Amino acid sequence: MDLRLIDHQTNMASSSYLRPFPTPPSLTPVMKEDGKCINWEELPSEITSSILRRLSSIDILENAQKVCTSWRGVCKDPVMWRKIDMRNPRNLVLNLEMMCRHAVDRSQGGLAEIDIWHFGTDSLLNYIADRSSNLRSLRLAMCSSITDVGLTEALVKLPLLEDLEVSYCSLSAESLKVVGQSCPNLKTLKLNREGFNRFPYESDDDALAIAETMPRLGHLQLFGNKLTEGGLNAILDNCLDLEHLDVRRCLNVYLFGDLKKRCSERVKVLRRPLDSIRGYPYEEAVNHMDTYEDLYADYYHESDSDYSDSEMASSSSNSPPLSTSMSQLMKPEQPRNWAELPPELISSILLRLNSIQILEKAQKVCRSWRRVCKDPSMWRKIDMDNDGDLGSMGYDPEIMCRHAVDRSQGGLLEIDLWYFGTDELLNYIADRSSNLKSLRLIMCYPIADEGFVEAVRKLPLLEYLEVTYGAMSGEALKVAGQSCPNLKKLRLNSETNHQFNDEELNDKKALGIAESMPELRHLQLVGNTLTNRGLTAILDGCPHLEHLDLRKCFNVRLEGDLEKRCSERIRELRRPDESTADHPYGFNIEDLLGPNNYYWDDLSAGYPYGANVYDLSDCSDYYSDEFY
């Protein structure tokens, strides 16, 4: 049935929206089969109510109830106001607070759900609470005029509340604790903050308040919260029914090792700190925030000089970026000695840098920072990301990487290598890091099959392997699968070669995966040459597969039974023709090297910058632990 309303807009003064309504707008006539017009006013009230409940409360009060007398009667029924949705585009010239009070009055105490966006006061919130003791769901988004005190005062009047959202509004940890104690049936909490938009610090206050007072939580969203692993563990200890957990932009949380395992076992739906915010209802509200990479750009000193503690303490406004960014947080008359920060806080800050920045910059700031940088806990993850211009670096990244591995003292869990590396380096890492869980090799062309196989056999606990734009045969993949029985995530991204098409060789890698990696959950094969045969083998051999990325796999034809099987089996499927705009490397390697340069002419040299870029015998020893 096609219902068409002629849009009727009115500009109402803030205090006069309940004045007599203007002449109701007409209805567009719709013809029945017998040629007569349908009289929409004669629809049964139940049908009219069912239709109108699809509108927001603002649309009902501003438009629908003005159509005709019968619709006006339906709109006054308290049943229509069990849920009040006051979401709005922020620029409406209406008195939304007065409109909301009127909607609450119409509910006659039967209000069960209410959503308020962009407006509201403490007075309004308590008006709602005083008249809606049966309220089950309350959502407040970007209501900047509502204070912590007013929100707490209202929430203690809502003992039946099950679903609470407070997004970009004021709510302290103490108030959060009062809420948990006053609302014992609370099952869903969404507490979304602005995250690290200025300076990162750690606070488990919210997390501990949740853990202490909300044992029945099943769904928890903490976007942009400052909790740490300690706070997250407290929540997991006390919220035993938790099934859905969203910690996106919680950049103090590191989901690795036992904590990662615990979350995977306990939580059905987990959104990790660096997961995409696509689909987040307030995506526009957080677009102004710094990106994860930008947050830490100023946390290391640009100078190569070695500063003493006293020099560090007396940094002026002319200092390089590290001192400048911190001085903005201090009162001019009370300079802060950053060298005297607790080691735990220094460590928390420096862990946001990659390993090259720590070795090249941060450890040279002062002796106290140097001591923190030597702590093995700083080297659980080694990130050797760089811009790829190895010839202009002024240091040997391989020697630097070996030194970082030594500092980990066997505790290394994750390592990322970009643009460099050799078989010898990979085996150096494997020999000293038997507990390694994650290995990422991005554009590490000199690493050969033989060296990779030798190293991966020493890494039985590996769970995540990435080889992007590097040499890797099907046989090497099979050895990796057999040697690493816990492997759950594989990214094998290749240089798309449209000219290569050998049916026998196309599926070698796919068959190696299928035969040896039954525990895979996440598989990315961007640019792979596999065919439908190889994909079918993977689906047969990897029964737990949930995420599959086949972008630029142009030999795969997802149609018929194969498409149906993928749709039924795979929770997240990226198809061959989908855009690679969100791919972390965001380009086709062919665009960089040209179609005739997939492989270097001198394969024996292996290294594109030649063997003599660095004179290793004359390398500075400033990475040694005797530097100071």
TrEMBL record:
Highest taxon in the source lineage: Eukaryota
Gene3D superfamilies for this protein: 1.20.1280.50, Ribonuclease Inhibitor (3.80.10.10)
Organism of this sequence: Brassica napus
Descriptive protein name: (rape) hypothetical protein
SUPFAM superfamilies (UniProt xref): F-box domain, L domain-like
Compositional bias ranges of the Low complexity kind: 310-327
InterPro entries (UniProt xref): F-box-like_dom_sf (IPR036047), F-box_dom (IPR001810), Leu-rich_rpt (IPR001611), Leu-rich_rpt_Cys-con_subtyp (IPR006553), LRR_dom_sf (IPR032675)
PANTHER family cross-referenced by the UniProt entry: F-BOX DOMAIN CONTAINING PROTEIN, EXPRESSED (PTHR38926), F-BOX DOMAIN-CONTAINING PROTEIN (PTHR38926:SF78)
